[in-house]
Structures are given as structure tokens and as C-alpha cells.
Amino acid sequence: MLNKLKNYKGNIQEVIITSLGQFLYLFQSLIQNKIFASYFETTVFGQWALLSSAYVFISMLPFTALEQGINKEATEVRKNGYDRQFYSVIALLYASCFSIYVVVLFFLNYLKKEDFFAHGYLSLFIIYTFTEIVKNTYLVLDNAYRNRKRVLYIRLVDLINRIVPYIV
After folding, report:
1. Residue 92 pLDDT > 90, yes or no?
2. Do 64 and 140 meet the contact criterion of CB atoms below 8 Å apart?
3. Mean pLDDT, residues 57-85 taken together
4. CA 6 – CA 3 distance, rounded (Å)
5. Contact 122, 105 (CB under 8 A)
6. Rounded to two decimals, what is the model's pTM?
């Protein structure tokens, strides 16, 4: 009976921590969009919205499918002791996809008569996109390993790291 009570308490705690992590993620998006909409000019906000749409498109193809595979296999790989090989495969797949996207983005930027990514913003966009994808992959791995508190802390630090520069 005590074991069931301890498991129930652990499950409730895990649900609360997971819910807090999701709330922080939603809160971060809400605050970020509110700050951008309030303080940016219409054209700057429009460009930011377009870039964020491009980020979503890039992060969905093929990284969402890769993250689902990572989530499915991570626990089994860790049980069998193949962590290093698994991380090597992830790094190789991501490096391949990143390389393809970089070439395509530079090619598209070169073909366009006006520089959409003026003043070096293409490099910043690529760095932002790929760091977000890698961060999301680490969150997927931590979720697969059931490190809910770590996910919560990562999201909290990410919220602070985004909101403070926006406010400043």
C-alpha cells in the first residue's frame, strides 16, 4: 500500500512539473509576441513574423520526425548502453540536414534581388534556428529519460534569457 502511495505521489509530482514546463513555454511565446507587437514597427514585426514562420517550417522538416524517433528510441538505447553511438547518429543526421538548409537558404538569398536577410541577418537567422532545434532535441531527450525537473529548469532559463533582452 505504501508503494502505491509513493508511486501516486511521484506521478502527481511529475504531472505538476510537466504542466509547469508547458506553461512556461506557452507564457514565453505569449510574452515574446506581446513585446514584439507592442514595440516593433509594423514592417519589423512583419519581417519577424515571416522569419518565425520560416523557422517553424525549417524545424518541422525533418527535425520533428527525427525528434519523434529520438523520443521513441532514447530509453531503449540507454538501457542497452549505446548512448554514444546514438548521439553520434543524431549529430550526423542533424549536421547533414543543417548543411542542406544552409546551402538552400544562401542560394535563395542569392537569387532574390533584394536582400531579405540584409545586414548579416541570414547568419543570425541560421544560428538562431539551429540552436533552437538543438535545444528542442535536448528537451526531447530529457523528456524521454523522464528528467522533468531539468526540462522545467531549461525552459525557465530560456524564458529569462529571452525576456530580459526584449525588455532591455
Report:
1. yes
2. no
3. 85
4. 5
5. yes
6. 0.73
